[in-house]
Amino acid sequence: MALASALAAICPPGFDDFCDHEMITLITSDGHAVRCLEGLLRARCPKGPQAAAGEELSVVLPLLQWIYAARVQERPVGDFDLEHFARIVRLAESWGLRDVAELQERLMAKRSRARGAGSLPEDLLTAYRNNELSGRFSFRCPSLSNKDTKADEEEMEVPLEGGLTALLQVRSEYFGAMLSGAWAESCPTKDEKTVVTMYWPRDQMARLLEFIHGGTFVAKVEDLRTAVDCAAFFGVPSLLHHVREWIANNLKVSTAPTLWRFVETEPLLKMQDIDGCEDAEDVEAACFEFHLEHFSELAGIKVWESFGGDDETNDASEEEPPMHTLSIELFHRLLMSGLVRLPTRQLICVVERFARAKCSDPSCTEAFAKLFTSLMPPAVIFNRDCRSALLQFNDVPARTMITI
């Protein structure tokens, strides 16, 4: 997941060029000094590691790897390794690690590549919401509207907690530039928190900051546009990954055409090469496959009819089928694949209804004829029957071919 990957990139002994105000130094029993994010350690370990508890670097670093990114190293198991793992678990227990049981299970079972992040997202988000991360920055979002009430304006003046500066820097290109170097916003002000003014809607900024610290951003379809805009402006690729995952997991017959059209019009959602998001969902493929699988429902055909005969009188539902909200280009792509599982005569009716819906004006007779022809063979492969006949497959009995 993106959060764990971001934290793994700054896990000791990696890059630690962050604000000293947010760091803590652990001294191991073999004399090594390890700089860590104090807020993160306290979020994950309530007892708080005051020191390395007399353990060596070889024990402290694997534990920090779990605390930061919920990852364990893969090692051959032997008597020495089992004892070494036990020392890591004992140190975790002494620090009060919240998900020590899962750490122990992962160590002993050698499931280093297993999915899951323990309680990392929950621990970090809870600490962020409770203002327990000791971040150096907060953000004030002035009102952008003249219609806000006095109460709204007072709320706008209350700064939003920035959380872990290091996490803001590695998960957002915008904050990475703003909160480092010699920019005015990043200049230290002794021990006081630096308040940065952001001319951005407060509710969106609040959701973005929570997302960076392990929260979710998209809860409903209306959030997608906002999420993409925030991801583009603040340079948060993992937020685009979150949008793709949400769409793929929330495809329904009633909303799938609208979601697919949204994906098609957003080039950013087609980016697959995102650092830390190697398992990014191919949302285009997910939408395409959903429309093929649920084609008869999207077209408004009753389930029992879609598996019936070739009766040309089969009717669609009285309500406007969801498929009619799909763009002509995407509908053409479905037919062009030749993978639609629908009897030829029924599919002709579906195509005709779709074309008439797109050319509903009585004066569009010529446009209807042109569109209808472009959606019929030989302009498209049409359905699996036509595809099988063209490719001379014998696995699916071919129905009557269409000639125009």
Radius of gyration: 28 Å
CATH class of the domain at 2-119: Alpha Beta
In which range does the helix fraction lie? 40-55%
Structural class: mainly alpha
CATH topology of the domain at 2-119: Potassium Channel Kv1.1, Chain A
Tell me, briefly, the overall form. Answer: elongated
Order of helices and strands: HEEHHHHHEHEHHEHHHHHHHHHHH
For the largest beta sheet, what order do the strands appear in spatially?
A: 4-3-5
Describe the largest sheet.
3 strands, mixed
What CATH architecture of the domain at 2-119 do you see? 2-Layer Sandwich
Distance between the termini: 51 Å
Please identify the oligomeric state: single chain
- Total strands: the figure is 5
Show unreliable segments. Answer: 306-317, 394-404
- Number of H/I helices: 20
The CATH superfamily title of the domain at 2-119: Potassium Channel Kv1.1, Chain A
Mean pLDDT: 83
Write a structural description:
With 404 residues, the protein is mostly helical. Among the domains are: 2-119, Potassium Channel Kv1.1, Chain A, CATH 3.30.710.10; 294-391, no CATH class. The chain contains 20 helices and 5 strands. It has helices at residues 2-9, 38-44, 57-69, 79-95, 100-109, 120-129, 150-157, 165-171, 173-178, 202-212, 223-234, 237-249, 256-264, 283-293, 295-298, 303-306, 328-337, 344-358, 365-374, 384-391; strands spanning 23-27, 33-37, 137-140, 160-161, 194-197. The strands form 2 sheets. A 3-stranded mixed β-sheet has the order 4-3-5, covered by helices on one side. β1 and β2 form a beta hairpin. α4 (79-95) runs antiparallel to α5 (100-109) and α18 runs antiparallel to α19. The chain is elongated, with a radius of gyration of 28 Å. It starts with a helix and ends in a 13-residue tail after the last helix. The model is unreliable at 306-317 and 394-404 (pLDDT under 50).
